[in-house]
């Protein structure tokens, strides 16, 4: 199974097994993989500020259950999420033109698992696959940009919403998307289409917030756009993918919002101005409310 792995990558997996064993886990989880890569991924360690690896390690260790009885190392299999990370690492190596799989590809594999706490922790510190992949490919590192503290909770909530719902929604065929949602004259397709419109609008607003001293927009996307754009005739699973992709891109942009934009004045339509931080809080609340109606 590990023929294509470098000696250091095989060592990282063995070290992850050791981390799991010492913590009494019956599986090698993605958290154990990350703990080992924070020691073995020399490319990542070479581009991160010195304090970040230890900060991430502390967060990971605090998230794990208390140490229990040690489990024999040889008996530990990979968890389902860890297997996915290894599969993604092989894809990342091939994508970058490498026949072998090294520790940096394992890190990229972890970053690809959107529905796990490990990826969200890395994102919090500005470590995204789109930032790290070019570095692994040989490009000079771009400045690392952790998410501003005032955005952390909202970004974490949006990442969690995407992770919790995308796979669930994609399991269903078009007939599921054509069913009505509660308390609205929309189908599920139309409700998610409205969220697509809102995500697109917020992309424009965030770009303007980054480049203008104030933000003034004509208003939120009209509900009349839903029927005009015929979301009900579009493929359900493609609407789900589009909604998720737009929000992941939105998170990518939010990671680049500087601290001094916290109180930037945003006026949407005729409403009273609100700070940028509140604008995004309301967006996440809207997403959570509409997704809840779709799932109901």
Question: How would you sum up this structure in a few lines?
Answer:
The chain has 296 residues and is mainly alpha-helical. Helix content is 61%, strand content 3%. It has a three-stranded mixed sheet with strand order 1-2-3.
Describe the structure.
- This protein has 296 residues and is mainly alpha-helical.
- 61% of the residues lie in helices and 3% in strands.
- It is built from 14 helices and three strands.
- Strands 1-2-3 form a three-stranded mixed β-sheet.
- Strand 2 (265-268) and strand 3 form a beta hairpin.
- It is globular.
- The N and C termini lie far apart (43 Å).
Layout of SSEs?
Elements: H1 7-22, H2 30-40, H3 42-47, H4 51-63, H5 80-95, H6 103-111, H7 117-124, H8 129-136, H9 149-170, H10 174-177, H11 188-211, E1 215-217, H12 224-228, H13 236-254, E2 265-268, E3 274-275, H14 276-295
Parallel strand pairs: 1-2
Antiparallel strand pairs: 2-3
Number of helices: 14
- Unreliable parts: none
* N/C terminus separation: 43 Å
- Overall mean pLDDT: 89
Rg, Å, rounded = 21 Å
Strand percentage lies at under 5%
Provide the spatial order of strands within the biggest beta sheet: 1-2-3
Class per helix and strand makeup: mainly alpha
| Global morphology | globular
Helix content: 55-70%
What string, H for helix and E for strand, traces the elements in order?
HHHHHHHHHHHEHHEEH
Largest β-sheet summary: 3 strands, mixed
């Amino acid at each position: 199974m590990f023929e294509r792995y470098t000696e250091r990558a095989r060592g990282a997996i063995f070290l992850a097994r050791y981390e799991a064993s010492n913590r009494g886990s019956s599986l090698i989880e993605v958290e154990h993989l990350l703990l080992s890569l924070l020691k073995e991924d020399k490319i990542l360690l070479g581009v991160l500020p010195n304090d970040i690896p230890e900060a991430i390690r502390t967060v990971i260790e605090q998230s794990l259950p208390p140490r229990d009885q040690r489990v024999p190392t040889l008996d530990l299999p990979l968890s389902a999420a860890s297997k996915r990370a290894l599969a993604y690492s092989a894809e990342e190596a091939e994508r970058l033109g490498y026949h072998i799989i090294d520790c940096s590809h394992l890190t990229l594999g972890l970053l690809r698992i959107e529905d796990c706490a490990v990826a969200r922790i890395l994102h919090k510190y500005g470590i995204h696959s789109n930032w790290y992949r070019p570095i692994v490919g040989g490009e000079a590192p771009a400045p690392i940009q952790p998410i501003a503290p005032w955005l952390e909770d909202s970004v974490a909530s949006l990442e969690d919403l995407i992770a919790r719902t995308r796979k669930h929604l994609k399991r269903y065929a078009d007939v599921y998307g054509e069913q009505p949602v509660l308390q609205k004259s929309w189908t599920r397709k139309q409700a998610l289409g409205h969220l697509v419109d809102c995500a697109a609008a917020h992309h424009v607003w965030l770009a303007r917030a980054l480049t203008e001293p104030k933000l003034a927009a004509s208003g939120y996307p009209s509900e009349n756009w839903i029927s005009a754009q015929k979301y009900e005739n579009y493929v359900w699973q493609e609407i789900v993918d589009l909604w998720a992709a737009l929000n992941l891109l939105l998170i990518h942009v939010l990671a680049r919002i500087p601290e001094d934009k916290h109180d930037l004045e945003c006026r949407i339509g005729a409403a009273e101005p609100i700070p940028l931080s509140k604008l995004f809080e309301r967006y996440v609340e809207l997403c959570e409310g509409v997704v809840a109606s779709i799932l109901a």
